[in-house]
Amino acid sequence: MSSRGLALAPPAKNVVVYRNGDPFFPGRKVVVNQRRFLTFEAFLNEVTKSIHAPLAVRNLYTPRHGHRVAELGDLQDGCHYVAAGFEKFKKLNYLNHGRKELRGTRNSEGLQVSTSGWLFSPIFHSCRNTGSSHALGCFYCSVFRNGDLLSPPFPLPLSKSTPLQWDALLATLTEKANLRSGAVNKLCRLDGTQVSGGEELVNGDYYVAVGNEEYKKLPYLELLVPQDSACRTLWYVD
């Protein structure tokens, strides 16, 4: 390459990328090198791997107002962005170290249902802060929406040390899943068998929220979660 070509090569930029809708993800630094990434799509593929997204990243947004970034040249050195698939931008306080305090109401079983639809226990924040979720009795599941092959699975963090009220869980799933058929009446495994209680939930497994309709056996995992085995580990567990 000539000296003129080297002079014209754009300098690398450092950006920080957050996961859309994840209030606990601290962000990942990604180097934008246009000599390495010839297209914006190639850069988005790298972001998908870097942040362990639940499905391929196809859009970048500014964190405060959700303005969409369309080209590599639009990225600014030292700036922050939010990575998303095809879903809408979710407005959170990403710049506060990628964390947002969740507020909710405590039910009789000691669980809290937050306004964002997350279900968590009093030790949930401790699990996040220390990273020792297994030792503290936290576990995490991902839930698909029955018959929906356009929406990614949503996270369901729970506590093994706090008794789980099944009705409260279904109410939270109803709010979070927002099924066209209405309320979530049952939770199924990917093979269609029904889960009858919280003690049957397995850390790291995927489930399907179902309403009054029959379970629809579809390739949820294959189509909505990246094939890379590393990416199939739940994205919100660091």
Overview of the structural elements:
The chain is of the alpha+beta class. The protein is 19% helix and 23% strand. It is built from 6 helices and 13 strands. A hairpin with a 6-residue loop joins strand 3 and strand 4. The longest helix is centred in the last third of the chain and has 12 residues, at 166-177. The relative contact order is 0.14.
Largest sheet: 5 strands, mixed
- List the secondary-structure elements in sequence, H or E: HEEHEEEEEEHHEEHEEEH
Question: Quaternary state, please?
Answer: single chain
Strand order of the largest sheet: 2-1-5-3-4
What is the strand tally? 13
Dominant shape: elongated
Stretches where pLDDT is under 50 for at least 5 consecutive residues are 97-136, 229-238
Residue share in β-strands: 15-25%
Total helices: the number is 6
How does the helix and strand content classify structurally?
A: alpha+beta
Helicity, in percent?
10-25%
Mean pLDDT: 76
Could you give the distance between the termini?
41 Å
**What is the CA-atom radius of gyration, in angstroms?**
20 Å
Task: Give a brief outline of the structure.
With 238 residues, the chain is an alpha+beta fold. A five-stranded mixed beta sheet has the order 2-1-5-3-4, covered by helices on one side.
